[in-house]
Specification:
Blueprint: E1 8-10, H1 13-18, E2 26-28, H2 33-45, H3 47-60, H4 66-86, H5 91-96
Parallel strand pairs: 1-2
Length: 107
């Protein structure tokens, strides 16, 4: 998407989210090669549809660059910390306990 190519993907949930439910790229029925072929043929015959996908994808794709992903992950952490502190927990301590300490160094 970021390279300006039209993306064709199966309609699995993760691909639906990445392609904004089909607004940023073409979706075909998962496991249906005839639908994949029909989707590709439709795109080849419809330059306006390809342009519409490209335009939407150019606006949509920024959500998946590292700065955008980092912001989303930090927002989830903030929500988890707020929820945990509201019930008196120690989420940071539990998370840090999952990682082994380095011998002769800091954690």
């Amino acid at each position: 998407m970021s390279a300006g190519s039209v993306v064709v993907a199966s309609d699995l949930g993760a691909f639906q989210r990445v392609l904004d439910d089909g607004a940023a790229g073409a979706l075909f029925r998962n496991g249906d090669p005839a639908d994949l072929a029909a989707t590709v043929l439709t795109l080849l015959a419809d330059p306006a549809r390809r342009d519409a996908y490209r335009e939407h994808a150019a606006q949509w794709v920024h959500r998946f660059d590292w700065s955008g992903v980092t912001e989303q992950v930090l927002a989830v952490y903030d929500m988890a910390l707020a929820a945990d502190s509201a019930i008196g927990g120690d989420v940071v301590g539990r998370i840090m306990g999952l990682f082994p300490r380095r011998v002769g160094g800091d954690t």
